[in-house]
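2024-03-11 09:14:02 INFO queue: dequeued item MAPEG family protein, len=129
2024-03-11 09:14:02 INFO validating residues
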Amino acid sequence: MSLELTYLLASAALAFVYMMTQAGAYRLQHGLVDRDPNRDVEERPNMLTARAGRALRNFQETYPIFIVLVVVVEFTGRSGLLTQWGAIVWFWARAVYLPVYVAGLGRVRSAIWAVSAAGLALILAGILI
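2024-03-11 09:14:37 INFO prediction written
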């Protein structure tokens, strides 16, 4: 399995961590037995729940791009140093992003997001060059 596919597989586990962080924060706020199981009427999320939800949504915005880029790398046989480093950079930046976001380190979070975007740009450059 290529390095890019290895990181794609690892990213599925990372997506699960993001999802469970948001779900766990929601349950901490609302308890195990919610008053409205359909969530038709919800109270405003507390700070932890809101941050975990925003972190998950942000992950979901860039994750499809990562998936597409890795699939293109695999189908075109364009794996190389740029695509490999791009996958590594994107994955680890996204792994660090979640706890930094939940902790409320806004400026650091923005810098980490930029690093993850650079990882995507590296993969794209590796495909195009």
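2024-03-11 09:14:37 INFO annotate: The longest helix spans residues 47-76.
2024-03-11 09:14:38 INFO item closed
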